[in-house]
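Reviewers of the previous submission asked for a worked example of the structure-prediction workflow described in the proposal, so we include one complete record here. The input consisted solely of the amino acid sequence. No template or homolog information was supplied to the procedure at any stage.
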Amino acid sequence: MAPGTGQIVANGRPFEDYFPSAVHRTLITEPLRVTSAEESFDISVTLHGGGLSGQAGAFRLGISRALV
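From that input alone, the workflow returned the following structure tokens.
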């Protein structure tokens, strides 16, 4: 997570390609929306294991912790 324009990359792929489900994307970006920081940070993450739902939850937790 670094100051930026809101670009999110997961495993080197665009966020929308890695998480095609709108539900997962909404879940992941919720901490950014709640803190009004959606366009304040660029995020790059490496995920593995757990399936897409588990990865989405872990990604959300990581963003929350980074914001704190």
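The helical segments are 15-18, 22-34, 51-67. We consider this example representative of the routine output the project will generate in years two and three.
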